[in-house]
Design brief:
Chains A, B: InterPro entries: NUDIX_hydrolase-like_dom_sf, NUDIX_hydrolase_dom, WH-like_DNA-bd_sf, WH_DNA-bd_sf, WHD_NrtR. The structure is a homodimer. Chain A is α+β, with helices and mostly antiparallel strands. The first copy, chain A, has helices at 57-69, 104-108, 131-148, 162-173, 179-189, 225-228; strands at residues 8-20, 26-34, 44-45, 48-50, 75-82, 93-101, 116-120, 192-200, 208-212, 244-246. Helix content of chain A is 25%, strand content 26%. In chain A, 34% of the residues are buried. The structure holds a DNA duplex.
Chain lengths: 256, 256
DNA sequence: GCAAAAGTGTTGTTTCTACACCCATGT
DNA sequence: ACATGGGTGTAGAAACAACACTTTTGC
């Protein structure tokens, strides 16, 4: 109803994590917060809030994220600005939406309650505003970008096995991948490098641990890489997986 | 200096056209407008203006575009929202930037004067604000997207020869393409369809005229295709090239 | 030994690339 | 006839996909 010249500006974020699913594989999940005022009171919505005068857009995304869900993402990128006239029933609101990835261990720290909850990405309740459309777009971007960039490690800890990495791809793309070809592709891209350590405690041959080669930053970000993806390099917490790591460098390592 | 909670919201557009270059090939050009007030008075800047309360983001882009350069683009898509704190010296301004393509004949209608001028894309003057960065990003997007989508016809008229289409690719990607392979790729993608007409008046074998198959809309837009690219389908004006078209359907046509 | 996943090798298919060559028109 | 780009054919290279097979651990 307001006749202000400059519409209200808000920032929201679609956050993704992977969590163990029912059938042994991982499934995509995202956190929603329940609205506590009109419009759409009681409905689930994306975490977000108004942009304040002295913060960046990405800063605003991080801040509202932390405030509503207490999450700190490992990857954060702008998704799209939504400004349809009718997206909010009363006032005119333009939302600049970000999307983010968090590692599983970080996601565990969420305090879930009546107003904050993780939902499986393709079993969402009715959402407020146009948030359903926004989530669909974010999902499309995630799936598309996974195939030509190195964002997958946003879901993982500092080190990981190629099987874990493959599981990320399989969960997001929703299709099985050939382990042999996957290994070759990953090692061939140079984006991933063996640490020399191995993971023991599995009931089979201990797999090698890998980490991302941060020096390799292929041209998939564009001239805005320094602007859009400052959070890509946020170091992960030490892995809190239930496996132990041993350090007997094997002969078959790629680069020691 | 303003302490408003909601920053000012502006919309700008990076518009591209192709025009005949010095060496016989085409070159990318974009229109800039001269600023007539502080800050950056006298500097060249992207066309744009404030978002008003009763218009869409894309509408605002179209409106300001028409007002400042009297251009109507054939393709319009959101590029990015720029919101750095220091991008304007005095007030806080968040700019939602679009990028657009116009056909050559449409571009001819620009009324160039002291305050509106086309510049070759990689020979720009000093620009106001962060517009240099914005143009670089738009250029990157154009070049990237050209390779996996069907936006090239945004530069062309309703019908065109494959040589004209190839010229678009060569000018934007700045590298020569093999005519034979280009033809096969284009025909194989199904995005382009022969009209049956041919272009006469050249001093060699008359090439076939093609048009875009509008029914083919591959999944390169995402769930927002209906939202982001409403201008993609704007029909072009009848071709005003200096060639004549004849209509003798030849036997070697692909589909009549 | 057996199961199970790690890791390597191989083969056939598809796609890409370079380039040769014929075709149809204007001059 | 000849120059010029339109249009087609094709052989080699590279990338991809499917799947067999060997290795190393826990049990």
């Amino acid at each position: 109803m307001s006749e202000v010249v400059s519409p209200n500006l808000a920032v929201s974020t679609v956050i993704f994590r992977l969590r163990p699913g029912a059938d042994g594989t991982s499934e995509l999940a995202l956190p929603l917060v329940r609205r506590i005022r009109a419009p759409y009171e009681g409905r689930w919505a994306l975490p977000g809030g108004p942009l304040t005068a002295h913060e960046d857009l990405a800063q605003a995304a991080s801040r509202t994220l932390l405030a509503t869900t207490s999450l700190q993402p490992r990857y954060l990128e702008q998704l799209y600005a939504f400004g349809q006239l009718d997206r909010s029933p009363d006032e005119r609101v333009v939302s600049i939406v970000y999307w983010a990835l968090v590692a599983s261990d970080e996601a565990e720290r969420t305090i879930e309650n009546d107003n904050v909850r993780w939902f499986v990405a393709d079993e969402l309740p009715e959402l407020a505003f146009d948030h359903k459309l926004i989530v669909e777009y974010a999902l499309w971007r995630l799936r598309t970008k996974l195939e030509y960039s190195q964002i997958a490690h946003g879901f993982l800890g500092e080190t990981f096995t190629l099987a874990q990495l493959r599981e990320v791809y399989e969960a997001v793309l929703q299709k099985p991948l050939d382990p042999g070809n996957f290994r070759r592709t990953m090692e061939g891209s140079g984006a991933v490098v063996a640490t020399g350590e191995r993971l023991s405690g599995t009931r089979h041959r201990p797999p090698q641990l890998y980490k991302y080669d941060t020096s390799v930053n292929p041209a998939d970000q564009g001239p805005l890489s320094h602007l859009t993806a400052p959070c890509t390099l946020v170091p992960a917490n030490p892995s809190t997986t239930s496996f132990r790591t041993t350090t007997h460098a094997s002969a078959s390592g790629v680069s020691a």
